[in-house]
Design goal:
The structure holds two protein chains of two kinds.
Chain A: H1 5-13, E1 21-24, H2 28-31, E2 42-45, E3 49-52, E4 75-81, H3 84-92, E5 98-101, E6 105-107, E7 112-113, H4 128-134, E8 137-141, E9 153-154, E10 169-171, E11 175-180, E12 183-189, H5 195-200
Parallel strand pairs in A: 1-2, 1-5, 5-8, 6-9, 8-10
Antiparallel strand pairs in A: 2-3, 3-4, 6-7, 10-11, 11-12
Helix pairs in contact in A: 3-4
Chain B: H1 8-11, E1 21-24, H2 34-43, E2 48-51, H3 63-67, E3 71-76, H4 83-90, E4 95-98, H5 101-112, E5 117-120, E6 134-137, E7 140-146, E8 150-161, E9 166-167, H6 176-182, E10 183-194, E11 213-216
Helix pairs in contact in B: 5-6
């Protein structure tokens, strides 16, 4: 059985080390926060906050307290607020240990495409280009194939890039792969997924 | 010098002209200068270029100036929440320059600091880098981005004293300080003007040197995505 969304998030949470400052993207990456366990992880929200807390209780929503997805959230006792230039200063400056992001395509050299589909409505890259260029480690969490069953792990991206050679590790419903010299290296297969199945679902070169 | 004005329209008096470049604070609908945007709508100033992370929604934020066709160009990182914006953009009525969010923030900060250009890794190898100067430092490639020097900055803060020292609240700070810094003139709307001397000098987020005009007013502070969790059963 391939991993479901929560299992992918739980696997991604294993990547995080005690003491890290981390930025989580929208979608499955957001679920990673549910699986960090006892590790001391500080979540950054790039609109200007370190130490992001859970959603507020009904009635406690504060319009001045939102995350980068514009959702109402809460603060923790460790929270610090700052402006957007400072926020991206810590991103660009390599202070954020890791970003966990979704993707449309990843290439075998680590190219990442997750911000636009030509001909479709373009909403913008937000902070994604800054994050992938700046943080210590870029971990992509996504389904291995698109809804047509085609591999999202490609020899070359077909969509406009978010970053060039920026991805370090990819966690999909079929397993975990690292970007290494010459292509992707299988780190592990999801429970019940064989290496042959993973290879068969992957267009990118596996070394 | 007196910085306090009675309302948004009077605070903008003499500062607005067609074709001007305005930097606006805010992220989504959080910490946006909603009163000043309303006054710009009322003034009818046209052909505006806005540097603002987002473009509001159809009936709030910069969205209200799109309805009246007062905006010529947006410099933004994300504009996904605005149907009228998309309609005008796709029909060619509205220009759009996408900036990565951190690049936009740093362009404002840099402009306010007198820095006309800086190098960043953000966007190297993407469409953002096309046509920009590339330069290698220590074996890594960077692109040059330019500082923003706006004719006017419009900003929302939580509190100001009478000299314009500002305090922001939670994530409503966001783009407001860098936007304030990059404006030739900066007009600020706050929820409360407090007597000079009542703010702790160590707790000022943005010193009054960046602030030229201040108004106090009531803010709607609309929530874009209300997300909550259930209270646990006792």
């Amino acid at each position: 059985m391939p991993w479901d969304r929560n299992q992918m998030a739980a696997r991604a949470a294993e990547e995080l080390q005690d003491g890290w400052y981390v930025n989580l993207g929208i979608g499955i990456p957001t679920l990673v926060a549910n699986y960090v366990g006892d590790k001391d992880i500080t979540l950054q929200s790039e609109n200007g906050m370190l130490g992001m807390g859970p959603f507020p209780f009904e009635g406690d929503e504060d319009p001045d307290l939102i995350n980068a997805g514009k959702q109402t959230i809460t603060e923790l006792n460790r929270t610090a607020y700052f402006d957007s230039a400072t926020s991206f200063g810590m991103i660009r400056g390599g202070k954020i240990a890791a970003a966990i992001l979704g993707a449309m395509e990843v290439a075998e050299n680590g190219d990442l495409a997750n911000w636009m589909i030509p001909g479709k409505l373009v909403k913008g890259m937000g902070g994604a280009m800054d994050l992938v260029a700046g943080v210590g480690r870029v971990i992509v969490v996504m389904d291995h194939t698109n809804k047509h069953g085609d591999s999202k792990l490609l020899k070359e991206c077909t969509l406009p890039l978010t970053g060039k050679a920026v991805v370090d590790r990819i966690i999909t419903n079929l397993g975990v792969l690292d970007v290494v010299e010459g292509g992707l290296k299988i780190v592990e297969c999801a429970d019940g997924v064989t290496e042959e199945e993973l290879r068969a679902a992957t267009e990118a070169t596996i070394v | 010098m007196k910085k306090i004005y009675p309302n948004a329209a009077e605070a903008l008096d003499g500062l607005l002209f067609d074709g001007m470049f305005i930097a606006a604070g805010g992220f989504g609908l959080c910490g946006i200068p909603e009163l000043l945007l309303g006054a710009i709508k009322g003034a009818g100033t046209k052909d505006l270029t806005f540097a603002s992370n987002n473009a509001g929604v159809d009936d709030f934020g910069i969205g209200i100036l799109l309805q009246t066709r007062q905006v010529k160009k947006m410099i933004s990182s994300y504009v996904g929440e605005n149907a009228e914006f998309m309609r005008q953009y796709l029909s060619g009525e509205l220009e759009l320059e996408f900036n990565p969010q951190g690049t936009l923030a740093e362009r404002m900060r840099a402009g306010g600091c007198g820095i006309p250009g800086f190098y960043t890794k953000t966007g190297v190898g993407t469409v953002i880098a096309e046509g920009k100067e590339h330069k290698d430092f220590n074996g890594e490639t960077y692109i040059m981005e330019e500082g923003i020097f706006a004719d006017l900055a419009i900003v929302k803060a939580w509190k100001a004293d009478e000299t314009g020292n500002l305090i922001f609240r939670k994530t409503a700070r966001n783009f407001n300080p860098p936007a304030a810094m990059c404006g030739k003139t900066c007009v600020v709307e706050v929820e409360e003007i407090v007597p000079t001397g009542s703010l702790d000098p160590d707790h000022i987020h943005l010193p009054g040197i960046y602030v030229h005009r201040i108004i106090q007013g009531d803010h709607e502070k609309r929530i874009e995505q209300r997300t909550t969790r259930k209270r646990e059963e006792a």
